[in-house]
Amino acid sequence: MLRFLGFRLLRAIVTIVLVVTFAFVVLRLSGDPALLIMSVDAPPEAIAAFRAAWGLDDPLWVQYIRYFNAIFHGDLGRSMRDGRDAIVLVTERIPATLALTLPALAIKIGIGVPAGVYAALHRNSLADRMVMVMAVAGFTIPSFVLGLILVLVFAVQLGWLPSGGQESWRHAILPVITLGVGGAAVLARFTRSAMLEVLGQPFIRSASAKGVPWAAVVRNHALPNAAIPTVTIIGFMVGSLIAGAVVVESVFSWPGVGRLLVVAVANRDLAVVQCILLLVAMTMVIANLIVDLLYGALDPRLRATRTAGAH
Amino acid sequence: MITSRRSTLVGAGLAGASLLLPRFAIGQSDTRRSITIAVQKTANSNTLEVLREQSNVGERIFFTSLWEGLIGRNWLGDLGNTPSLAAEWRRLDDRTVELKLRQGVKFHNGDEMTAEDVVFTFGRERMFGNSGDAPQGRTLFTTETMPGRAGNTLPPEVPAVALRNWPALERVEAVDKYTVRFINKTPDVTMEGRLARYGSEIISRRGFTEAETWLDWARKPILTGPYKVADYRPDQSLTLVAHDEYWGGRPPLKQIRFVEVTEVSGRINGLLTGEYDFACDIPPDQIPAIESNRAFEVLGGTILNHRLTVFDKTHPVLANPLVRRAFTHSIDRQAIVDSLWAGRTIVPKGLQWPYYGEMYINDWDVPKFDLAEARRLLREANYRGEPIPYRLLNNYYTNQTSTAQVLVEMWRQAGLNVVIEMKENWTQIFDRNSQRGVRDWSNSAPFNDPVSSIVNQHGPNGQQQQVGEWTNEEMNRLSVELETSIDRPRRKQVFRRMLEICEREDPAYTVLHQNATFTAKRKDVAWKVAPAFAMDFRPGNWGR
C-alpha cells in the first residue's frame, strides 16, 4: 500500500511540476504583462520601468529558476496588478467559488445518480427515454447558453431572481442551477450505462435466479459494481471544485476563482495564474488519489491486487 | 453601585437605542438616491491612482466624482479648460504659470486644500520618485521594491508616467497659502493644458503620508471630488459616497456603486431588471434592442479618441508611400460609421479635435474615398498583389473585428491583398519575429494641443516610432519645434505640415472614425452624458 501511495505521490508531483512549467513558459512567451497591465497607450518609459521592477527583462531561465526557488521557500509570488501575495488573492476568492460549486456538486450527485439508476432499471420505458432526452439536452447545451436562458426567464421576464452579482443567497440560485444541470446530465448518462452494463452480468442473473429480491440485487450487487465509473466522474467533478466555474462566474458576474483566472490570464498576471493552476492541479491530483483509494473500498479485487503488488 | 441583570439589559438597550436613533434620523433626512452602474471594468491596474491607471475605464470612475485638478474640463460642453481647484490663473512668462487656489476646498478627510498640498502633489515623494533628475525623454528609474510591499515607495511606472506628462517641469512653488507657481525648464505653451490633463489632479498631503503603504493610499485616495471612496474591491466593485463638504455644493447622490459585469448581456439584463441604473460599454448593435423598450434609452457619442489604421514602413511593400496612400483612399469611412456605428459617430478631420481651439485646422480632412485614385497609386507603385499582413485583436476596440473585415474588403476593391492574422494581445501585435504590415490603434488627446496626440503618439518618442514601425526625419524635427515653440502662428503651420507628412505624403496612419461610447439608462432618470468616458454626477447634473 505504501509503495502504491508513494508511486501516486511521485506521479502527482511530476504532474504538478509539468503543469506549472508549461503555464510558466506559455504565459511568458505569449504576452508581455507590462503591456497588458499598463495598457498599450502607456508611455514606453512606464512599460520599461514596470518590466525592470518585476524582473521581466531577465532571461526566461533566470525567471524560471527564481520562480521555483521561491516556490520551495513557500512564496508563490505576488500579483503584478495588485501588489499582494498571489495566494492571498486566490484564497480570498475560493469561498465564493465553493459557494457555487459545492451546492452544484450536490445537485449533480443528488439528481444525476438517481436519475441514471432509475433510467437503467426502467430501460426503454418512457421514463428512461425522458431521462435520457433531458440528460442529452443538459449535456449538450453550453453553460453560458443555459445561464443566459435562465436569466432571461427568471430574472428579466419573471423578475423572480437577480441576473447577476453576489449580494445574497438568491444571487447564487441561477448559477448553481446552471452548473448543476450540466453535471447532473453527465452523471445520469454515465450511471445509466454503468448500471446497464452491470445488470447484464451473469452474477446479477445468478443472484436473481437464487431468489434474492430484486431490490437487494440492485442494492448489494449492481450499485457497488456500477459505482466505479461513476466515482471516477465524481472525482473529476470534485477536482474541478476550485476552478470549474469559469464560464458561469463570468456570465453571472460572480467574483470567484474562475473570474480571477480569466482576468489574470488576460493580463498575464503570472503569479496569480500559476498559483491558481497549482491549486487546481493539486486539487485534481488529491481527488484522483481519493478516487483510487475508493476503488479499493468499492472493489475488494482491486484492494487485493494492490496488497499483492505491495509485497 | 449594585446592578441587576434587568437593569444591565435595560441600560444596554438604551445605549443601543441611543446609537441607533441618530443614525436613523440621519437616514431619514438624507433622501438622496443611491445608484448602481454596471461597467465592463472598473480599473485595469487595481488601483485608483491616476498616474497608475492609464485607461479609458479609469477616466469613467475618476472624473468627475473623485479626482479634480487645478484647471478643470468643461465635461458637459466642449471639454475645454475651466476653473476648478484654481479659481484663476495667469502667465508670468513663457515658462511660468501662476494659479490662485479656490479657498475653502475640503479634502475627503476634512482638511482644507492649500498650496502645500499642490506642491506635495507634484513632488518627488508622490509623483516623480527618484526620476526627477532624469534627462528629458529618458527614464532612469528602476527599483527592486515592489508596489505595495512597504512604506510609500512608488511603483516605478508612476514616476515614468509623471515624467511623460511633465517632461520639463522644473519646480512648483508655494507663493502663499492660496497661490502656486508652476515653473518649466523650457518655454511651453501647453502648460495650462498639462495642468488640465489626466494625471495632474491634486491630492491631500496628509492623506498620502498617513497611509501605511502606497497601495493603501492608491485604493482609497484622499481627494477633493464630490464623492469619496467607501469601498473598493478590485475586479468587483467600487462604492463612492457623497462628500458633503464638496466645494461645488452638496452632491446629488448619496452613493454611487460601480459593479463589474464583464458580459454585455449581463449589463443589459441587469438594467432591464432594475438591478442597475446605468449600463455602460454598450456595443452599437445592441442599441436598437435596448431602445425597443420605451422605458430605456442609450446615451453617449463621440469621445476624445480616434480609431486608426497604422502602417509598418519596414514591410517591403509598405515601404513605398504610394501603397500606403492607396490604403488611405480605399476606405469608405462614412459607410463604416453608418453601418457599424448606426451613424452615431463621425469621420473627423484627421488626427485632431475641435477642442484644440486656435490650433484646430478646420480646412484639413481625411484622404478622400477614391477607388480610382487608389488603383492608380497601386499601378504607379507597381504593386503585384503581394500579401500584406493585418494583425488583429478580437474586439479590443468596439467593432474592431467587423471593421477589419469591412476594411479588408474595401482594400480588396482597390486591388490590395490584405490578410488578417488574429492575435491574442499587444505583444503579439508588435512581435518583430515575423513581418508586420498594418494594425489597429486609437489615439487620444489628453490636453488641448496637438503635442498631446500627434507628437506623443507618432513623434520621435511616440509608440509608433518606439516599436520601429515608422519614422520620418522631418516629422521628428517638427515635433521638437511644436513642443518648444511659443510662436503660435508658426506652431499652427508646423502642425499642418505634420498632418501632411503623417496622413498624406508618408502615411504613418490613417484615421478611420472618431470613437464613441454608449451608456444605457432609464429614460426617467434626468442626467446628461459627457462626450467622454467620464460620468458627471456633480451638483447640477442630476434630477430635473
TrEMBL record, chain A:
Keyword Transmembrane found: yes
Main location group: membrane
Domain ABC transmembrane type-1 residue range list: 94-295
Pfam families, per the entry: BPD_transp_1, BPD_transp_1_N
Keywords, ordered alphabetically: Cell membrane, Membrane, Transmembrane, Transmembrane helix, Transport
Entry annotated with the keyword Nucleotidyltransferase: no
SUPFAM superfamilies attached to this UniProt entry: MetI-like
Single annotated GO MF: dipeptide transmembrane transporter activity
Subcellular location: Cell membrane
InterPro entries: BPD_transp_1_N (IPR045621), MetI-like (IPR000515), MetI-like_sf (IPR035906)
Residues passing through the membrane, by range: 12-31, 98-121, 133-160, 172-190, 226-251, 271-295
Entry GO terms, CC: plasma membrane
Topology within the bilayer: Multi-pass membrane protein
Family: Belongs to the binding-protein-dependent transport system permease family.
Protein's recorded name: Peptide/nickel transport system permease protein
Organism: Humitalea rosea
Lineage of the organism: Bacteria, Pseudomonadati, Pseudomonadota, Alphaproteobacteria, Acetobacterales
Automatic annotation (TrEMBL), chain B:
Entry-linked CDD domains: PBP2_NikA_DppA_OppA_like_10
Compartment annotation: Periplasm
Chief location bin: periplasm
Alphabetical UniProt keywords: Signal
Annotated InterPro entries: Peptide/Ni-bd, SBP_5, SBP_5_dom
Domain Solute-binding protein family: 83-451
Any one GO BP annotation for this protein: peptide transport
GO molecular function terms listed in the Swiss-Prot or TrEMBL record: peptide transmembrane transporter activity
GO cellular component labels: ATP-binding cassette (ABC) transporter complex; outer membrane-bounded periplasmic space
Protein's UniProt keywords contain ATP-binding: no
Xref: PANTHER family: D,D-DIPEPTIDE-BINDING PERIPLASMIC PROTEIN DDPA-RELATED (PTHR30290:SF38), PERIPLASMIC BINDING COMPONENT OF ABC TRANSPORTER (PTHR30290)
Family: Belongs to the bacterial solute-binding protein 5 family.
The protein's name: Peptide/nickel transport system substrate-binding protein
